[in-house]
Amino acid sequence: MRAVVIGTGPAGITAAETLRHLDPSGSVVALSVEPFPPYSPPAMADHFLTGREAPLYWKGRDVGPRLGIDERRGVRVGAIDTDNCEVVLDDAERIPYEGLVVASGSRLHAPLEGADRPGVLDFKSLRTATELIGRVRRGEVTTALIVGNGLIGIELSLLLADLGVDVTVIGRRTWVMPRVLDPVTSTVAEAALVARGVNLRLGVQVDAIIGEPSATGIRLADGTHLDADMVVAATGVKPHTEFLDGSGIVTGWGVHVDQGLGTSVHGIVAAGDVAEAADRFTGKRFVHAIFPNAVAQAPIAAANLLGADLRYDGADTMNSLKHLGVPIVSIGTIDGPDEILRWQENGVLRAVYLRDDTMIGAQLAGDIRGAGVYRSLMLRRLPVGRYGHRLVEPGFGLADITLDALGHRQHSLSVV
Ligand SMILES: Cc1cc2nc3c(=O)[nH]c(=O)nc-3n(C[C@H](O)[C@H](O)[C@H](O)COP(=O)(O)OP(=O)(O)OC[C@H]3O[C@@H](n4cnc5c(N)ncnc54)[C@H](O)[C@@H]3O)c2cc1C
């Protein structure tokens, strides 16, 4: 097959690799708008701090030539002509395909007045991150404001603090990483951030990014102005779908995909941050923009493009924070529980979220042992009420579940 992959992020390069592997006689063209070899965004902070390249260029800088993938950098896809099966580049070049993988990932989403002002930086891609860190390295930045207290804003704040910048994170919600952590678990993250020298201003509404001709600060809803050498938008991400307009590929927030990761157009699949796939726990369509989902979806999408009939189990909601110095893991959702069980002692915190006698979410901080057991209970939707508060206490694990299962078996045997 003549396959084209749009994007060489974790999803795109994994799809290209799979296509190459499963179809050695076919051709694979992989396109990226960025000028870099395929890279892993979660490794960017470490790369800028330590200079290490291997985790960043996780497939090797030479992955294209080594695997026989025609990996093309600095090319932007402007449209897909699905009638003629051609990818149209911004410079009007047309690349024909027999099978197409859309793995264009996500970009900064900053619905905020002044966010398009010159000088507003972000840490979403290696290109923008390189520009941002370049300013720091050139000594142009003593103070920085990060608008947004999600995962990317928090990761960047730690990096900037480590690079000696006086950095302040500003968040609308009153706790950090509100989409991932509950307010109690986030206190552990907040303590770690403050200890690392990050300033937090939470529960504050930013009205606009201000400055002429380029950004010099922000205006808060109460009229206060905050100034800094650098203003960073970390307000969220949005799937890169603009170039799909007019292609017939159905999109919502992201590209709608079926269980096999096929789009609404035959011969076109999607994977990674761009794909709006079913959530593994709730079954609802959602964009879970995390690395493990991207690399789990890509091989399935690629194999199905070649005619396989694989089913994707659904996107996981599991986040772990690597650079905080304190282990924290969040699994599933914190939305709409019937009951929350908590255990907390000496900086170790565990919480499980229950609905209809099953687990819908878990949060662990300080000691993340047992996360796998919780995930497994959630995936199997096993009833957990029988464990009572023990479920959330340290030491709860496979042994409890196994003993319990054995107990049930003995009981049913005696009844028989
Ligand atoms: C700073 C940071 C830290 C993160 N930390 C974590 C973490 O700790 N754990 C975790 O699970 N996830 C983390 N993530 C999220 C994770 O990086 C993403 O989920 C993952 O990169 C998604 O991979 P992807 O291939 O779908 O998209 P992307 O990585 O966004 O790659 C998209 C690709 O498409 C290309 N592209 C886009 N539009 C076009 C176009 N029009 N034409 C040509 N090429 C195009 C881009 O150049 C790029 O190659 C982090 C992200 C960032 C930014």
Write the layout of secondary structure elements.
Blueprint (H helix, E strand, L loop, with lengths): L1 E5 L3 H13 L4 E6 L11 H7 L12 H5 L2 E4 L3 E5 L4 E4 L4 E3 L2 E4 L3 E3 L11 E2 L4 H12 L5 E5 L3 H12 L3 E6 L11 H13 L3 E4 L3 E5 L6 E4 L4 E3 L2 E4 L3 E3 L15 E2 L11 E3 L4 E4 L6 E2 L4 H15 L12 E4 L6 E5 L6 E7 L2 E8 L2 E8 L5 H9 L18 H18 L1
Parallel strand pairs: 1-2, 1-7, 2-3, 7-19, 9-16, 10-11, 10-16, 11-12, 18-20
Antiparallel strand pairs: 4-5, 5-6, 8-17, 13-14, 14-15, 20-21, 22-23, 23-26, 24-25, 25-26
Bound molecules: flavin-adenine dinucleotide.
The site of flavin-adenine dinucleotide has 36 residues, from helix 1, strand 2, helix 5 and helix 7.
Structural write-up:
With 416 residues, this protein is an alpha/beta fold. It has 3 domains: 2-107 and 238-305, FAD/NAD(P)-binding domain, CATH 3.50.50; 120-235, 3-Layer(bba) Sandwich (FAD/NAD(P)-binding domain); 327-415, Enolase-like, domain 1, CATH 3.30.390. The protein contains 9 helices and 26 strands. The strands form 7 sheets. Strands 3-2-1-7-19 form a 5-stranded parallel beta sheet. Helix 1 (10-22) packs parallel to helix 7 (291-305) and helix 2 (44-50) runs parallel beside helix 5. The longest helix is centred in the last third of the chain and has 18 residues, at 398-415. The model is unreliable at 409-416 (pLDDT under 50). Flavin-adenine dinucleotide is lined by residues 6-12, 31-34, 41-42, 44, 76-77, 103-106, 123-124, 151-152, 155, 240, 243, 272-274, 289-292, 294, 322.
